[in-house]
Design brief:
Blueprint (H helix, E strand, L loop, with lengths): L1 H32 L2 E7 L4 H14 L3 E7 L2 H12 L15 E3 L4 H8 L9 E5 L2 E6 L9 H6 L4 E4 L5 H12 L10 E4 L2 H10 L4 E5 H6 L4 E7 L7 E6 L6 H12 L1 H9 L11
Parallel strand pairs: 1-2, 1-3, 6-7, 6-8
Antiparallel strand pairs: 3-10, 4-10, 5-8, 5-9
Length: about 280
Amino acid sequence: MRHYACIRSVARAFLALTVCAVSAAGLHTAAAWAGETFVIAASPSLKDVLEKLGNEFERSHAGVKVRLFFDSGLSLRQTIAGMENSMVGRYFVGSGPINLVAPGGDELITRLEGKYYVLPEGKRPYASDQLVIVVPESLVDAPESLDAISRSGNRLAIADRSRTRLGVQTDDMLRALRLQDSMKGRLDVATDSRGVIDHVLSGRADAGIIYGHEAVKQQDRVRVVGSIEKGYQPTVHSMAMERYCPNRPLCEEFLSFVQGADGQAIVKQAGYAVPAGVAK
């Protein structure tokens, strides 16, 4: 019995030490994050969804402040290249290093990978553009699908293929689904997504096709009656860790967060679709 009592005492001591070690690790992590500024260089087109993701990450990581720096693709590339090649230090606008890069679409990340400005094969897709059908918010008896619009005499507002990516994707989709002939004479071509919304609200068209994230921004004026998931190549948005990210464990946590259940719920609420290969 004395032998067993000794074993139990050793086990209790080991468990106590384990709990203390885990608690100390947690305190050390929290202390390491205290006052941490987490910088994401991003495209302005992703402002809404990134702000929401950043706010939620801050909420679950006390002491972390997510800072977003927005610029166009070319300027963003020049900023990162200037930081990488600086003889003074790899810093961004004189206020600290860049943690993650989140441009609109993956073309810039591919270019940065080629220069080894971001870690190769480290990009994480987290959102993709999705085409949706919108009607005036107050309209009660509205068509709920492209098939319904095709069978009826309704007019459909679409963006100009020669002017916007939205127009290219919409036209590709109509051709792929063989709806060009059935919609002949009933396609109302607008300059861009704003024009599509204006045509729908003014009555020139009964419904329109825009991106889901644009519909969310205009939800007091239009409502989504259907989403389109095939017939076009959606633009995928990814993030990648900057080569000299100062806190790689925290960067990895953010990347895992945006692909996880909580992050993807925010992405979908913002009007984007879940990219292929990301758990829904």
